[in-house]
From TrEMBL:
Protein name: SKAP1 protein
PANTHER family linked: SRC KINASE-ASSOCIATED PHOSPHOPROTEIN 1 (PTHR15129:SF1), SRC-ASSOCIATED ADAPTOR PROTEIN (PTHR15129)
Organism: Steatornis caripensis (Oilbird)
Highest taxon, organism lineage: Eukaryota
Swiss-Prot/TrEMBL keywords: Cell membrane, Cytoplasm, Membrane, Nucleus, Phosphoprotein
Gene name in the database record: Skap1
Positions of the UniProt region annotated as Disordered: 138-161
Annotated localization: Cell membrane; Cytoplasm; Nucleus
Gene Ontology annotations for the cellular component aspect, listed alphabetically: cytoplasm; nucleus; plasma membrane
Main location as per UniProt: membrane
Amino acid sequence: SEEITPKPVQDTGSILKQGYLEKRSREHSFFGSEWQKRWCVLNRRTFFYYASEKSKQPKGNFSVEGYSARLAFHLRKDSRKKCCFELICPGKRTYEFTAPSPAEAEDWVDQIQFLLKDLSSLTIPCDEDEEELYNDVDSSDAVNTTSHNTTLNQDEPNIEMKEEDIYEVLPGKQPKKQ
């Protein structure tokens, strides 16, 4: 019967990256180590972590939408500090990991950032060249999903609209409809 059961790892959608990471536990464990080895799987939207590669059920998972990833050398004091990275999201739990090597840590961060860029491009039509223009759209877009920074879109959009009106209303012409 072992053959027939699909491993959950495989039916999590298209896997971008998987591998062993040490994950910092929220509660310090009695054994002194707060870092626990976990088999981690990243698919298009979700980060899963399992006790081992053979596990059928994940110990946990979370949606990476809204998170950002970055290297985090401050998490450890030992020789593996350059292998650390974290996933952070305002108002949500921060996930902290140690990769097997600094290169792996960078690759996890790259994959997650790539994925997040991909996710945001689904909601915002965005040309590669015009990335800079969309920076403020990204930040005010975040307001819709998480209400942590409502100040962002109080003034800016109005100012922009007014400026556009000034430029577009020429004598004898109707303002363009947006």
